[in-house]
Specification:
17 helices, 48% helix, binds glutamic acid, 13 strands, 5-stranded parallel sheet, Rossmann fold, alpha/beta, 445 residues, 5-stranded mixed sheet
């Protein structure tokens, strides 16, 4: 790391003690900026780097709620409004027991550059709570969401900050939060949240967008080598929204996804995933991956090791941060994997990324490869602002175009800074320079 960048990193570590995921995300971006600053030293002037690593605003609040047995619980709510150079803060809300300030900050920081790559005029933010929706009744989830929104409502708005879903937050939660926002404000601001239901301002393709985009990105990377996904064996981790629609798009492009996972283990289905059954189990029944195996002859549940122990051509980590470490990367490479496209945010550890890059395989980092979700959120905002609705084909064509542009921007930036084929450098350099140019234009704010 260059001296100037190293100093900024040290300050981040000192100022944000113990927030290891945030340190990791900042390190990964700053490391890429060496060649950018060497070529354009003005990016290190005016404390621009110091400003970009400091959130514009951090909100932390109490979320009290009452369970079905009458017991009172207290969770912690977060919204980190990281950077508004390019547009209103935009990013999801995560409800998961692991959530803390450092995790929300890492996600918010990633979101700045991801959103810049989409070129849709959206700033970066993230939020959530350490609330665990698993095993909670609909009524409990509703009361939690209402309490959460009672505080959040004063900080957000269609031109200010536009939250959406992430892990643990889907259509049900967005519905309860939108209902409470509308009631508090006495205003039908459809554009205040994205990921809404289709009957009340949602966009077609938003549900599918992150998973679809991750696979489209893999397809674009393969195309640079004159290859495609056709006939490839695909390993997917996770069994949420991103994983399910990555599997769907991979199948549409002629590949065979054979795995998925949740916290109870991973499933190997050598015949190819039965997508209808997986949707029934996870989307309709909110069940576990074991329920799939019970109803699918030939599929097996493995409760030790990880999905990355299975040999395959393409890996799509779609579960959570740091789910794929250096050992897993070595195992994947030994198994013949030649493409990794990240559906989750920061799923590969720095050791894993290093192993992939050393081996020279195609590696698409999350901030580029999973940007299709937030890009389609921006399309939802666009439809809300115009009080219009596009059909599926129109929305999907726009998503496909945006993913192709992101891919090409990464390729061009990697070439410009002397490391052709390095999508990590490409994504970080292209995302950073777009945000930095506008921060310079806006002055010291
Ligand atoms: N949570 C998603 C992400 O990580 C989507 C955010 C959004 O749609 O605002 O990008």
């Amino acid at each position: 790391m260059q001296d100037v960048v190293e100093k900024v990193y040290e300050q981040v570590v000192a100022r944000n003690r113990g927030e290891v995921e945030f340190h990791q995300a900042v390190h990964e971006v700053l490391e890429s900026l060496g060649p950018v600053i060497a070529k354009h030293p003005h990016y290190a002037e005016g404390a621009l780097l110091e400003r970009i690593v400091e959130p514009e605003r951090q909100i932390m609040f109490r979320v009290p709620w009452v369970d079905d047995a009458g017991q009172v619980h207290v969770n912690r709510g977060f919204r980190i409004e990281f950077n508004s150079a390019l547009g209103p803060y935009k990013g999801g809300l995560r409800f998961h027991p692991s959530v803390n300030a450092g995790i929300i900050k890492f996600l918010g920081f990633e979101q700045i550059f991801k959103n810049a790559l989409t070129a849709q005029g959206i700033g970066g933010g993230k939020g959530g709570s350490d609330f665990d929706p698993h095993g909670r009744s609909d009524a409990e989830v509703m009361r939690f969401c209402q309490s959460f929104m009672t505080e959040l409502a004063r900080h957000i708005g269609p031109s200010t900050d536009v939250p959406a879903g992430d892990i643990g937050v889907g259509g049900r939660e967005i519905g309860y939060m939108f209902g409470q926002y509308k009631r508090l404000r006495n205003s039908y601001d459809a554009g205040v949240l994205t990921g809404k239901g289709l009957a009340w301002g949602g966009s077609l393709v938003r549900t599918e967008a992150t998973g679809y985009g991750t696979v489209l990105f893999a397809q674009s990377m393969l195309a640079t080598k004159g290859e495609s996904l056709e006939g490839k064996k695909v390993l997917v981790s996770g069994a949420g929204n991103v994983a399910i629609y990555a599997i769907e798009k991979a199948q549409q492009l002629g590949a065979t996804p054979i795995t998925f996972s949740d916290s109870s283990g991973y499933v190997v289905d050598e015949a190819g995933v039965d997508l209808e059954l997986l949707k029934q189990v996870k989307e309709v029944e909110r069940g576990r991956v074991a329920d799939y195996v019970e109803r699918r002859p030939g599929a097996r549940l493995v409760t030790s090791g990880s999905v990355w122990d299975v040999p395959g051509d393409v890996a799509l980590p779609c579960a959570t941060q740091n789910e794929l470490d250096g050992d897993a990367a070595a195992t994947l490479l030994r198994g013949g994997c030649g493409v990794v496209s990240e559906g989750a945010n920061m799923p590969s550890t720095p050791e894993a990324v290093e192993a992939f890059q050393k081996a020279g395989i195609l590696f698409g980092p999350g901030k580029a490869a999973n940007a299709g979700g937030v890009a389609t959120s921006a399309l939802e905002m666009e439809q809300n602002a115009g009080r219009t609705r596009w059909d599926f084909a129109t929305a999907e064509a726009k998503l496909t175009g945006i993913m192709a542009d992101i891919h090409d921007s990464c390729v061009a930036a990697a070439e410009e800074y002397g490391r052709p084929g390095d999508y990590v450098l490409g994504a970080n350099a292209a995302g950073f320079t777009r945000v930095a140019d506008v921060m310079i234009a806006h002055g010291i704010v």
